[in-house]
Write a structure and sequence with these properties.
Elements lengths: L10 H7 L4 E6 L2 H14 L7 E9 L6 H14 L2 E3 L1 H6 L5 E3 L8 E3 L3 E3 L4 E3 L2
Parallel strand pairs: 1-2, 2-3
Antiparallel strand pairs: 4-7, 5-6
Length: 125
């Protein structure tokens, strides 16, 4: 979804179609992009229902503003996100993964002539 929550992207539809219900979120703009993504996944009535885990030490504040970062992490926890570190993720059991063979996967051309082979992994929970 865009920042105005008016224009839907295909991401939610794709996640729903593949039965993905648990999102692990990381990124460099914790107090902007990561925060908005988590809020959309947990608070929006326009998206599917997700369990969200934020990998805190795989995120960073915009311009190093620690106060904004801390406020954002607290807000995401308040939305219902689980906050973990990479060490916690590495200790987790891997989910069962079903892979589609590359030769059977749809191929799509995306921007600048790049070829996306469409190898999908469906994480079932």
């Amino acid at each position: 979804m865009d920042n105005t929550q008016n224009l839907m992207t295909e991401l939610d539809n794709t996640l729903q179609a593949k039965g993905i219900t648990h999102l692990f979120i990381a990124g460099i703009a914790t107090d902007v992009c990561v925060h908005a993504t988590v809020k959309d996944a947990l608070m929006s009535t326009k998206t599917g229902k997700y369990n969200v885990t934020v990998i805190k030490d795989a995120t960073a504040a915009v311009l190093g503003d620690q106060t904004n970062y801390d406020t954002s992490v607290a807000a995401m926890k308040g939305f219902g996100a689980t906050i973990v570190n990479t060490a916690d993720v590495l200790k987790m059991a891997c989910p069962e993964v079903k892979a589609t063979a590359v030769s059977d996967a749809p191929q799509k051309t995306i921007g600048a002539g790049l070829l996306f082979l469409g190898l999908h992994f469906v994480l079932g929970q």
